[in-house]
Amino acid sequence: MPTSTRRPSPSRQTQPDLPGRLSRLRKGLKAGRVQWLLVTNPLDVGYLTGFMGGDSYLLLGPSGLTIISDFRYEEELAHLAVRARVVMRSGSIAAAVGSELSARRLRRVAIQAESVTLAERAALEKAAPGVTFSPLAGLIQPLREVKDASEVANIRAAAKIQEAALLATLRTIRAGQSELEVAARLEFEMKSRGSSVPAFETIVAARANGSLPHYRPQRTTLASGQGLLIDWGATVGGYRSDMTRTFAIGKWPAKLREIYTIVLDAHLAAAARLKAGARTTDVDAAARGLISKAGYGKHFGHGLGHGIGLNIHEGPRLAHQPPGTELRPGMVVTIEPGIYLPGVGGVRLENDYLVTQRGAQCLCSLPLDLDWATL
Predict the structure, then answer these.
(1) Cα separation of 353 and 308, whole Å?
(2) Quick one: DSSP state of residue 309?
(3) pLDDT surpasses 90 at 266
(4) Which CATH number fits domain 148-362: 1.10.10.10, 3.20.20.450, 3.40.30.10, 3.90.230.10?
(5) Over the stretch 316-357, which tens digit does the pLDDT of each residue have?
(6) What is the pLDDT averaged over residues 205-227?
(7) At residue 241, does pLDDT exceed 80?
């Protein structure tokens, strides 16, 4: 049983390269002959400005920035006034956008096709009747796929917090506790160590519930001689981490012990294929091939992994559907093969990896071996 409860020491903050992000976006807009872009996705606004408060839009032009927000964030946005025009709206955000566009006499503005709803577009068109809003996709997400040093530092810090939180939680786990109790303790331990929010709804799946990949914890109790799957993550500076471990309380059920070894081999095989230039489909195939060869292919129905960052699921996606994506240095992805057996339980083993030119660097340090996973 792990005994360490030492909290990770804070490291010097690495500043995000906001000017570089804006420069790369403007370069892409210029290539597409787009002059003005209205950024409405709150995570994209945060990515480009450092402001993570939400409920705010960013109007990006060839040389200037305008952040449209409201009184709740006035003090928080004050420091951005040196590099952006900050507008505090008193009415609707659509009306404030209309006023800005009218003052600049703009006639065409690009909007984010992935995040603007039909209702939001209708409100914008009503507030700015002389403006054509052109929906464009894939403007910012490709930039976010490759992380800079500050983003990697935040993900590393989140992983350290979630690992320390799990170690503290494992010391308290007993048969008879409910899944909800374990999830609550784990989320408390993460928050007390500096995680702003859980990276996603914590998964604690006891007994046969482990066969449900995105299970939500309930009142099912932990039992001796049964499996326990925990999928959890922390958040630091808006950036997420994501790990999964599968345990047994006492003696391992024979079938779970068997598939644990298969899943572990699949995880290691896929991680060995991770490097810049590799295709996501090939990395997925390394794990999927082992699981299929062992006779459990139909019990591994999801993709091998996904990118993480400001979203818990973002590009690139590691899956078996062609053509796949070529991995680039700076991408941070999960490797999470699993085998799920209805009525028995499941095993999933997940770590976060930074793709490098020569291979991949694991951002997680908790063991993966079967002995460590026996509680």
Answers:
(1) 10
(2) S
(3) yes
(4) 3.90.230.10
(5) 999 999 999 999 999 999 999 999 999 999 999 999 999 999
(6) 97
(7) yes
Taking CA atoms, 75 is separated from 71, 100, 120, 352, in Å, by 8, 21, 26, 35
Pick 18-142's CATH classification: 3.20.20.10, 3.40.350.10, 3.30.160.270, 3.40.50.970: 3.40.350.10
- How do the domains of the chain map onto residue ranges? 18-142, 148-362
- The predicted model scores a pTM of 0.94
**Is 129 a residue whose pLDDT tops 50?**
yes
Distance from C-alpha of 98 to C-alpha of 60, rounded to nearest angstrom: 14
**Predicted confidence band at 1 (pLDDT cuts at 50, 70, 90)?**
very low
Q: What would the DSSP string read from start to end of 10-68?
A: P-PPPPP-HHHHHHHHHHHHHHTT---EEE--HHHHHHHHS----S-EEEE-SS-EEEE
**Long-range contacts formed by 119-123: CB under 8 A, 24+ apart:** 120/40, 120/94, 123/92, 123/94
Q: Is 200 exposed, middle or buried (0-12, 13-18, 19+ CB in 10 A)?
A: middle
208 contacts: CB under 8 Å, gap ≥ 6: 342, 343, 344, 345
> Quick one: pLDDT band at residue 13, thresholds 50, 70, 90?
low
Answer for the pair 235, 202: CB distance below 8 angstroms, yes or no: no
Q: Report the SS3 class of residue 231.
A: strand
CA 90 to the chain's CA centroid:
33
* Cβ neighbours, 10 Å, residue 103: 9
User: Taking the chain, what is the end-to-end CA distance rounded to the nearest angstrom?
Assistant: 6
User: 353-374: per-residue pLDDT in tens?
Assistant: 999 999 999 999 999 999 999 9
Say if residue 284 is exposed, middle or buried (CB neighbours under 10 Å; 0-12, 13-18, 19+): buried
Q: Using the 8-state DSSP alphabet, how is residue 146 labeled?
A: B
